[in-house]
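Good day; I would like, with your permission, to put a structural problem before you. What I wish to show you is a protein chain and, alongside it, a tokenised description of its three-dimensional fold. I would ask you to consider whether the tokens describe a fold that such a sequence might reasonably adopt. You will find the record immediately after this paragraph:
***
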Amino acid sequence: MRIGLVGTGNIARVHAEALLSLDEPVELVGAVDVDAERVRDFAGRFGIPAHYTDLDRMLAQTRPDLVHVCTPPGAHRASARTALAAGVSVLVEKPPTLSLAELDELAAAQGESGPWLATVFQHRFGSGARRLRALLHSGVLGRPLLAVCHTTWFREQSYFDVPWRGRWETEGGGPTMGHGIHQMDLLTAILGEWTEVSALVRRQARRVRTEDLSMAHVSFANGAVASVVNSVLSPREESYLRFDFERATVELTHLYGYGDDDWRITPAPGFEQPVLDAWKAGETGHNSGHRAQFSAVVRALRAGAAPPVTAGESARTMRLVAAVYASARTGRPVRPAELGPGSAFYERMSGDDPDWITDPTGDRP
């Protein structure tokens, strides 16, 4: 599997290290970055034989099977579109695009048998999440009733002083889009289709044009409800998901990635033995890092199949992000059907006004 990398910053380093650790045979054939010195150093560090400042040249000269897009979010669409047009499948970092409209555009550029577009949502691929999904589908946990999905992280102002951060036009949103999206994606991967969102957003403390926190109530088609919080203002950082089923509570507490020890299950009275037996018999041994998803992507492509997570699956999570912004902007509940073409929040996460979020004093940015 011949792989090229677009962007050579810190997240590209994570990608390269994970790819080189795979059991599946892969070859890093090229790297691209607008900074010629940085891409040269990156290629040397990871033994990549060719480096470029132009994506078209890299695609033509190295002929990769797959391109990993690791640029800032504002450049995802252009890089992915270029690769797809050249017949090369794409794995793009989150968020895949800045808007639902851009994601639909890239989805339309795919072929029935490839090239394909997939998004990095690695929390789906740890053994804990896979075990939970298996138990849910087996019926041993009963119906899902209630969930909590909290991404409470901390970013100082200096983090947002990087020119592309904290801006709708280059990052697509604040912590709802750029930080909590991983936990929100795992939430939807477990609970499925959502049906309604009521939300509020604030810019409490950071000098940004987006939000620095959001809170939402989410209803799901299976009857479950969830509380979702996304923050970059929380000194004690934590990623926390809790699922209350009829017969057990399942909890995950971590920060940027989890292992098996980060999960906890509490059976309901009278269901201790079957629940614990099923949990102990489930899959173990795989953390939620990039390696697990990359391995699944490579295996799928080698088999001629679409890689996980497809554009359609990404769209469900992206619509949830858009619904948080739409509900907060309009002051009313929002359903998925309201976020299609013709909606301001389909075209951009900021909707019809990029400056609608005010600070605690009521001032605009």
